[in-house]
Amino acid sequence: MLQQLFIRNFALIEEMVIPFHPGLTVLSGETGAGKSIVVDAVSLVLGGKADRDMVRRGCDKAYVEGTFTTANQPAVCVFLQQEGMEQEDDILVISRDINHNGRSTCRVNGTLVNLQILKALASLLMEIHGQHEHQALLSDENHIQFLDSLGDEGYFQTLAQTSDLYHTYRQQQRDYDALQRENEYRQERLDRLYRQKKELDQANLQDGEEEELIKNRDLLRNSDKINRALKSAASLLSEGDGQQDAALPLVKQAVQAMQEITGIQAEFDELTQKMDGLYFELEDIAYSLQKRHHALDLDGSQLDDVEARLDVIKRMEKKYGTSISEVLMHQQKVEAEIAKYENLDDQIEQLKLLSERSMGDYLRQAKNLSALRYELAQATQKKIEKELSQLNMPAARFYIQIDSDENQASSRGIDKVAFYIAANKGEEKKPLSKTASGGELSRIMLAIKSVSSERTMVPSMVFDEVDAGISGRTATVVAEKMWDIARYRQVICVTHLQQIAVMASSHALVRKHEDKERTKTEVQYLDGNERAQEIARLLGETRKSDVSGIQHAVSLLRDAEAYRMQHPANDGDA
To answer: Does residue 16 have a pLDDT over 70?
Structure first.
């Protein structure tokens, strides 16, 4: 359950800590006092939409933090373990920051999480029911979702399997349609691919070829210079040039001269060895120069062939890639695409058969879902009628109509669901959107939530002005129904009705005041006398000195306490 809500710089709230209690907590106050702000803050903690307008004027960011107790909630513990989040002492802290640009960050026990994970976790902790849900009841398109939400675990498994099969079929159908579209211009595309393949085959590029050709081109462009240099260097080392002696014989003579003084000093021996080594190194160099000169076959006429080949490579790289490697990769893609188009008829036929088989699998499962949905509808009708009877609509008859048609296939099966009601005895059933008043919608929604609460057992629920359109005895039975729900879980309710307010086990007053030319909202829990005064205000009595108003309020509070004692909370805390 929600244990505490901390709010800072959120709308009209500068900073506030609101504790919450088990049982039924009511928030009341004048219109515009800020009750919806508190609900918006709770919604934000649970992953609701963040808006820059939520940030208090003049502030950089807003901050909202909810502290939950998770004792006896194994589903929450399992979820946290799966997401790798730690928890101590059954305490869970969820926080949201909203910057002035509307961006928000979410944290669970200090760990940064994305909005999807936060919403999944929040669905295990609390539900918020507002007036927008009442309006959702007016759209037939939403009725199938309301009905499906009441199914059990087996029902949800069938629904999930139906959805998976539908999406598999739809993806295959999209692939099939795409191939059909490709088939329309297949020949045109093949002709273009054939031309590319022919050009690339003729080019016959080899990986690494360009670098080798550039190296050969540089040699060929400098062939005369290279020949002269190699020949001259080899001659100067071993033969001389006719005017100068060769280097090798001179070095040999120098070595022989030094050999005459070896053994006299170590320094002379070392120099002699170095000169001897130099002679053999020069001799090796001379041999290499001669060998390279004789082996080098540089025919200047080959230069044109090399330049022509490089031109071919550059042309291919300009059309199909920035390097030979990329051109060769493109060539592989062209060949693969040609193979694909040449076998397109077979692919289309195979995908058609696969799609038809998937559609068959889907329809079989969808029909299983329809049978379960029909059983669920029959049971739900009776449960909702029972709830409506308790909500002062004893003559109401609730109908869930299901029309099955394979042509309206969707991820939820082949059914169309519509809610009908005959609110009074002797009336014909009519669509909910055409007959239900605001008060009836509130009670129908409360009946649906009461039925769904038997299955979901979410530990906390928030009702934002569930009392819209109701009054008198109906308001009293709605209040009793709210307490009946609160006996088993925490319920937080925003209300303007004294019948609901007196039924609360905890009553908080939301009000706003001006402080230094700024409007602030504050929340205060009420004690016995303060609560009686607030109930009197809800009754329409604005004078605090009016004894009859206070007495009436006290009487209502006493009656509500008697009802709560006759129907005690399941855990005895409320």
So the answer is: yes
Write phi, then psi, for 285 (nearest 5 degrees): -65, -45
Encode 165-177: b = buried (16+ Cβ within 10 Å), e = exposed: bbebbbebbeebe
Here the tokens at position 32 are 């515009």
> Alpha-carbon distance 495 to 467, whole Å?
6
Helical (H) or strand (E) element with 309: helix 302-320
CA distances from 252 to 140, 232, 249, 257, 283 (A): 110, 20, 5, 9, 10
- Whole-angstrom Cα distance, residue 171 to residue 472? 55
- The answer on pLDDT for 545 being more than 80 is no
CB distance 43 to 57 below 8 Å: no
477-536 tens-digit pLDDT? 888 888 988 888 899 999 989 999 999 999 999 988 877 777 788 899 998 889 999 999
Q: Of the candidates 28, 131, 155, 49, which has an alpha carbon nearest to the alpha carbon of residue 499?
A: 28
State both tokens at 562: 């008697």
What pLDDT score was predicted for residue 26?
Answer: 94
Contact criterion met (CB below 8 Å) for 465 and 492: no
pLDDT class for 574, splitting at 50, 70, 90? very low
The C-alpha atoms of residue 229 and residue 238 are separated, in whole angstroms, by: 14
- Least reliable range by pLDDT among 90-104, 184-198, 220-234: 220-234
Which segments of 204-299 does DSSP mark as H helices, in order?
209-221, 223-238, 247-259, 266-295
Report pTM.
0.63
The 3-state secondary structure of 174-195 reads HHHHHHHHHHHCHHHHHHHHHH
Q: Taking a C-beta distance cutoff of 8 angstroms, is the pair 192, 185 a contact?
A: no
